[in-house]
Amino acid sequence: MSVELGRVGVWTWAFEASPWGQVRAAAQEIEQLGYGALWFGEMDGRDAVSQAALLLGATERMVIAPGVAIIYRHHPATLAQAERTLAEAYPGRFALGLGVSNRAYMEERGHTWKPPVRAMRAYLDAMDAAPLTGPEGPRSPRLLAALGPRMADLAAERTWGAHPYFMPVEHTAYLRERLGPEAKLVVHQNITLHEDPAEARRLARSSLAPWLAMGDTTSSRWQLISELTGVTEADLADGGSDRLVDAMIAHGDAEMIAERVRAQFTAGADHVCISVATEFGVPQLGLAQLRELAPVLL
Question: Transmembrane region positions (predicted)?
Answer without folding.
Answer: none
